[in-house]
Design brief:
nine-stranded mixed sheet; alpha/beta; 25 strands; binds glutamine; Rossmann fold; 542 residues; seven-stranded parallel sheet
């Protein structure tokens, strides 16, 4: 029997609802249950793929090639369960389905309305393909009271009623702000937020109250009284120093216990949380530290590189060191001599990116790493820039660039016009829609035996997730290999360069895919583990 936990948020956004949901998933797993996590996003984009990282943060890509909300990354990192397209629905996606059905005539002459047609489509999305898990945790994006959220709240209200309390429950995440003048945590915004929920017919069963300091028992009683929630189900959720401590602290405060109690499931036995204790211990008491420069475009919005920052932290956990991230805007390196700023770092990472702005700075950073033998990790765009750098400065190819920035003399990186996915040939041209048309999701890659990456992965056939429109031009392979760039990973049909490396350099790897998407704190990605190990070796040299 699948049980549904609906997680809503109130008072303000950015309360860490995604991490709270992911942590609850991890706690239920630690008690032996299977879980699946889903996110419903109330915006009109069909998916976040077309949104600027400044608007939305990172676009997380699933195995099956869906471009999704970054919270799905938290879900995967905390539970290890691979998310799919079915796990993220937006208003845009739901409405496109409803309108497509209307055009086909599926509604048999009915007037198509938000209730019941849109809410039915939302309910279908919530229960579809849940894979028979014991629990499906459904996070509703946005904040209660937003106009956009209403159809979603109505749909979960209906589902709650249809499934009954034995199969559905509501968790509401709120904020208790501290007012210095009064010297106390204020409960009124939480009371108002619950009132908003009651207005749409939802009585929360558990309140997860975010606060920056302990919640006095008297205040907890007050919240319980005014919000109609049992006192033990008013859970204080204090800020923590590392997100991986969240499962431990929410467990101490009784979150998983209250969820199980709601469903009449046994909760007396303690869950096995050793995995999380170990991660938190290493994070809190590292044996050393390294500094990695991230040379990118969206460096003042950390959410734009969420999975990347986490994967680097995982690489640190694997090596028992703290990884300090030095976010650097690549445009800085377009000034002469600015690369000096990279003197003190132990590794340089150029992440994924789009568009021409700042690319010369990325190329300069790759050159510095290559010439000065600093560990270099180029991911997607970062690989493309490293190959252009080698083409210009090692192979002397004049006008080496990417057609992403317009026509050029030597298209070292060019538009990906044809590739195969299983037996299906995918074709693209300049003319296609922007949304959902990149090379997306998991693809296999053959790794050259004897290469550094073969050693790192310990296997010759790997699979990684992609999200790009351009590729390194195979026609330049021979010229580049002659000057020392090894194409060490190729698509199985040999047509698409997937990995390059520089033999003889301490650690210089560029990958066309996004390994950061698959890294987990309890299962760090081998490339990140190896990159951080190389950074440690570099730190010992300086
Ligand atoms: N802009 C590049 C492309 O589309 C790289 C994309 C990325 O880094 N994800 O190929």
């Amino acid at each position: 029997m699948t049980r549904y936990v609906f997680i809503t948020g109130g008072v303000v956004s950015s309360l860490g609802k995604g991490i709270a949901s992911a942590a609850l998933g991890a706690l239920l797993q630690a008690r032996g249950y299977t879980v699946r996590l889903r996110k419903l996003d109330p915006y009109l984009n069909v998916d976040p793929g077309t949104m600027s990282p400044y608007q939305h943060g990172e676009v997380y890509v699933t195995e099956d090639g869906a471009e999704t909300d970054l919270d799905l990354g938290h879900y995967e990192r905390f539970t290890g369960v691979a998310a799919t397209q079915a796990d993220n629905a937006t208003t845009g996606r739901i409405y496109s389905q409803v309108i497509a059905r209307e055009r086909r005539g599926d509604y048999l002459g009915a007037t198509v309305q938000v209730i019941p047609h849109v809410t039915d489509a939302i309910k279908e999305a919530i229960v579809a393909d849940s894979g028979g898990s014991d629990f499906v945790l459904v996070e509703i994006g946005g904040t209660v009271g937003d106009i956009e959220s209403l159809p979603f709240l109505e749909a979960i209200r209906q589902l709650g009623n249809e499934l009954g309390p034995e199969r559905a429950m509501f968790v509401h995440v709120t904020l208790l702000p501290y007012i210095p003048a009064a010297g106390e945590l204020k409960t009124k915004p939480t009371q108002h937020s619950v009132k908003e929920l009651l207005n749409v017919g939802i009585q929360p069963d558990v309140l997860l109250c975010r606060a920056d300091r302990p919640l006095p028992e008297g205040e907890r009683r007050k919240i319980a009284l005014f919000c109609n929630v049992r006192q033990e189900a008013v859970i204080p959720a204090l800020d923590v120093d590392t997100i991986y401590a969240v499962p431990l602290t929410y467990h101490q405060e009784g979150l998983d216990r209250e969820v199980l109690r709601h469903f009449g499931l046994p909760f007396e036995r303690e869950p096995d949380l050793k995995r999380w204790e170990k991660i938190v211990n290493i994070t809190r008491v590292p044996e050393g530290e390294v500094t990695i420069a991230i040379v990118g475009k969206y460096t003042n919005l950390k959410d734009a590189y969420k999975s990347l920052a986490e994967a680097l932290a995982h690489g640190g956990i694997a090596n028992r060191v703290r990884v300090n991230l030095d976010w650097m805007d690549s445009q800085v390196f377009e000034e002469p001599d600015a690369v000096q700023k990279l003197e003190d770092v132990n590794g340089i990472l150029v992440p994924g990116g789009f568009g021409e702005r700042g690319t010369e700075g990325k190329i300069a950073a790759a050159r510095f790493a290559r010439e000065r033998k600093v560990p270099y990790f180029g991911i997607c765009f970062g690989m493309q820039m490293a190959v252009i750098e080698a083409a210009r400065n090692l192979a002397g190819i004049e006008g080496a660039s990417s057609t992403e920035f317009g026509p050029c003399k030597a298209p070292i990186v060019g538009l990906l016009t044809e590739w195969t996915r299983g037996n299906i040939v995918e074709r693209r041209s300049e003319m296609v829609d922007k949304g959902g048309t990149m090379r997306l999701g998991a693809y296999a890659c053959e790794v050259l035996p004897e290469s550094l990456v073969a050693q790192i992965y310990g296997t010759h056939r790997i699979s990684e997730r992609h999200r790009h429109r351009y590729e390194v031009n195979i026609n330049y392979k021979d010229a580049l290999e002659r000057v020392g760039l090894l194409f060490s990973g190729m698509s199985p049909d040999g047509s698409l360069p997937e990995i390059v490396e520089i033999p003889g350099h301490p650690w210089f790897v560029g990958v066309q895919f996004h390994p950061e998407l698959k890294s987990k704190p309890f299962d760090p990605h081998p490339l990140f583990t190896s990159f951080i190990r190389a950074a440690i070796a570099q730190a010992r040299l300086v």
